[in-house]
Structures are given as structure tokens and as C-alpha cells.
Design goal:
Length: 276
């Protein structure tokens, strides 16, 4: 339920409005959820993400909100629901963390925030400005700037270069870090970096790509090539017979790798006669 200013939607005395929505509001006294207009009228979130956030905020504590569970409730598939959940995470309406239980089982802990700005304001510690010089915002002090290039890998460099092929593939640092393991799998399967880059950037749709990270994640998953088979052991080549040699004892021909005596001469006989 959203609170609205009655005067903002009142009809003029002259009659109906020329167009636009008209509201017939009745107060809810039970079984309702308070949702802020900052979510319902969010300028960036998709309608799927907004609707999913409202649904999650209406659920009781402990209700399952996994991708498969939500896909079983709504007509949207798992891919669209997963993309919507990532949108809500990026804008602070949702937080998902992995936790290991004492039994060793890993579960996902999900926290729904109905007012992310209030959470962020409470999470940032108050910092006094320095004695001299311009004041530094508390948010800037709370986030230390990492050294450039500390997390760079072949996979992150590849993802960062995609925007050179098409500006619609511009990714945030968070998206690059999240997609880098999937790119690494491709590289470990023997796919050259140029081929991975070409696969991700080729055949792009004509319509706008609203969520490039979700689009690339689908390609990395759907087009993943199989692991290369183990190399076959090479079959031994045909064995060539040893060359003919002339025995130093009986002057008979025999085959051996190097000159010397034949087997009979080495064993003390040649043509049935003893050799001195």
C-alpha cells in the first residue's frame, strides 16, 4: 500500500480529467504491505524487478525466495527472475550471502530492505573532516580506493574490452568480478581469449540491451563448449627389420643393429662346428 496526497489526485470542480489515471482508493485495515514510491516509481529498475521486490516484501519471515521457488509461482522463467534479483541487489533492495551451517550445508541468506537508503546511511560511520583542507564525504572515507590493477586477470581484461566492440556491453566493476569465473572456465577449456571475446560480442540484438551482465551470463552458460578430450596415445609405428651384417667369425649374413658375430658364433658354434 502506498500513501498518496489526496489533493494531488483530486478531481477539478469542472469535471473529469482530460486523460491519465484516476484513483479510487479505499483504506486497508488488514492484510496489506507498505511499499515506498521510491521502489514503485524507480527510474532504473525493470517492472519485473519492481514486482518481485513488492512480492518479497509481502512475504512472512522465513519464506523461501530461491530462483526455482519464485519461477514456480510466476510465469517468468528462471533467467528473468535471476536477472531481476541481481537488479534488486545492485540497488540495495536485496542482499544475498552464502552461509555454512554447523552441519556443513551451505545455504543462501536473503535480506529484503524496504528502504535501502536508510540502511546505507546507518551503515556508513560518521567521520569528522580533517583539521585543514576540504571536507571529505563520509561515503568516500568508508570506501578505500583499491590499488589499480590488483584484481586484473585475463578474464577481467576480456570482459572490460567488450565495450570496445559495442558500447551496450559496458559492465560495472561488480559485474566484471561476478562474470570473470565463467570466462575463466572457457579459457581453461582451451578456448583462445579472442574466440571468447568474439563469441560474446558477435550477433548482438538490434534492440537495446538493458542488462548487459545478464545478457553475457546467458551466453557464457548456453554457449559453453565441452571440455577437450584427453589426447589419444600415439600408436607405435611399424618396426623396421635390423640391417644385414656380415659375421666376423663365419662370414655369414645376419641381421643386427651393429656389426659383430652372429648368434651361433657367440654361443660357440657355426654351421654345427665348434669355433676356436
Amino acid at each position: 500500500m502506498t500513501e498518496q496526497n489526496p489533493s494531488a489526485h483530486a478531481r477539478p470542480a469542472s469535471g473529469r480529467r482530460a486523460g491519465g489515471v484516476e484513483h479510487e482508493n479505499h483504506p486497508h485495515h488488514d492484510n496489506f504491505t507498505v511499499v515506498g514510491n521510491h521502489l514503485l516509481q524507480h527510474p532504473v529498475l525493470s517492472l519485473t524487478a519492481i514486482g518481485l521486490a513488492v512480492h518479497i516484501q509481502s512475504l512472512p519471515a522465513g519464506a523461501p525466495v530461491g530462483i526455482k521457488t519464485l519461477a514456480g509461482k510466476f510465469p517468468e522463467g528462471e533467467i528473468r527472475i535471476a536477472a531481476a534479483l541481481r537488479e534488486l541487489e545492485e540497488h540495495g533492495y536485496l542482499a544475498r550471502t552464502k552461509e555454512r551451517l554447523p552441519s556443513g550445508r551451505v545455504v543462501t541468506r536473503t535480506v529484503s530492505r524496504n528502504k535501502p537508503r536508510a540502511f546505507l546511511a546507518a551503515a556508513l560511520p560518521a567521520a569528522e573532516p580533517p583539521a585543514s583542507g576540504p571536507a571529505i564525504p563520509a561515503a568516500a572515507q568508508a570506501r578505500p580506493t583499491p590499488a589499480p590493477g590488483t584484481d586484473r586477470t585475463p578474464a577481467t581484461d576480456l570482459l572490460a574490452r567488450l565495450r570496445l566492440h559495442d558500447s551496450r556491453l559496458l559492465l560495472t566493476e561488480r559485474d566484471v568480478r561476478r562474470l570473470a569465473p565463467s570466462v575463466t572456465v572457457w579459457l581453461e577449456r582451451g578456448v583462445p581469449a579472442t574466440a571468447v571475446e568474439r563469441t560474446l560480442a558477435a550477433g548482438l540484438p538490434q534492440e537495446p540491451i538493458r542488462h548487459p551482465a545478464a545478457f553475457l551470463e546467458r551466453r557464457l552458460t548456453a554457449d559453453l563448449p565441452p571440455t577437450l578430450p584427453a589426447p589419444r596415445p600415439q600408436a607405435p609405428g611399424p618396426r623396421h627389420p635390423d640391417p644385414l651384417q656380415t659375421c666376423d667369425g663365419c662370414e655369414r649374413a645376419f641381421r643386427a643393429q651393429r656389426p659383430g658375430r652372429c648368434r651361433d658364433c657367440r654361443e660357440g658354434r657355426a654351421g654345427g662346428y665348434a669355433v676356436a
